Amino acid sequence: RGGRDKQKNGFAFVETSALDWTNVEAAFQTIPTEIYRIVSQKQMSDRRENDMSPSNNVLPIHIPPTTEKKPKFQCCQNI
After folding, report:
1. If 0-12 CB within 10 Å is exposed, 13-18 middle and 19+ buried, where does residue 14 land?
2. Which one of 6, 9, 22, 24 has the fewest CB atoms closer than 10 angstroms to its CB?
């Protein structure tokens, strides 16, 4: 029954028995991993919604063309 409830309601559920320690260790490994996965997905989703990715914060840089400086005096042109 617990497995069906999990699928129907979206809850993380691990059936355990404290009497004979059935699935107790698995629960302590599975539940934190599932919490981490859900929180990570939410953070990624929030980041996409807020459009905070580096690729969306790029501004173009415009550099004006440089002009070649010519010597003012003709005597210095061949130096």
Report:
1. middle
2. 9
